[in-house]
Amino acid sequence: METVQQTQSEFTLPVKRKRKLTKDHLLAIGFLLPSVILIAIFVYGFIAWTGYVSLSNWNSLVPDLSFAGLKNYIYLFNDFRFQSDLRNTLVFTILFIGFVIIIGQLLAVLLDQKLRGKSIFRNIFFFPMALSFVVTGVVWQWLLNPSTGVNLFLQKLGLELKWYTDTNILAGFKWGHIEFGIPVAIIAVVIAAVWQMTGFSVAMYLAGLGGIPDEVREAARMDGATEFQIYRKIILPLLQPITVSVVIIMAHISLKIFDLIYAMTGPGANFVTDVPGVYMFETTFRGNYYASGAAIAIIMLLSVAVFIVPYLISSRRGES
Description:
Structural class: mainly alpha
Number of domains: 2
Number of strands: 2
InterPro entries: ABC_transporter_permease, MetI-like, MetI-like_sf
Organism: Neobacillus kokaensis
Transmembrane segments: 26-49, 90-111, 123-143, 180-213, 234-255, 289-313
Radius of gyration: 27 Å
Strand content: under 5%
CATH class of the largest domain: Mainly Alpha
Keywords: Cell membrane, Membrane, Transmembrane, Transmembrane helix, Transport
Strand order of the largest sheet: 1-2
Subcellular location: Cell membrane
CATH superfamily of the largest domain: MetI-like
Order of helices and strands: HHHHHHHEEHHHHHHH
């Protein structure tokens, strides 16, 4: 019996003691609780309210919260303007992210060299980030105006570009109620957005380049690798986490873009530069179609979540 009792005592699991709340714990909870309550109300509470309104019949000044199901969403996906918005957002996002990454990498690699006046060029590239999208939109609206700005110089070369007033669709084909392709007018908006946000990409890549030890490059040079091979096969692969971060942040900006479009072009002729943000603003605050506007907002939220949520999950897994 004594042997059995000794064996049982050896395999007895230790009892977990409950941690007592100390003053430090209570103080931390006291500091965090107001923020948690405010975020719960003014962020997640309003998201839930927007989702509830999007399922209602509130499409006038008089509130009507009777349940409408997915009627507002079905209407949007069959609407010519909203289909144009989805096309424009997709094209804008792909071109915007692509050029920001490519130009940002090239400029960062150039600034990473031992150049004179490196700080001056860095400040020049970073300066547009200090401006708001509204200012950028007004400036580029004047620069790309078909009758003024850059066109005064291009006309001497025999070129007359319509820029954001062009209604042509490149490589277009019929899709739903619209012609799916690359709207020429959206290219002007991409130019303005890339001009402003490339500085952010340059800053991210410069930070990544600064974190790569010089020993890695020296070892590659000793093995006979050229500078081009070093950047192509060693440096750029090491910068892949930076690229992922840039893609996520730029996608978040492009999918909810509003102020640049609104200040520079507006919806445009035949909605060639329209985006869901502008459509939501005009539908909700000018047309008083609150349920339709809420449905557009929920679709924008879900489109951003497609990029953000997987990134956050992978980041948490990487930390754990």
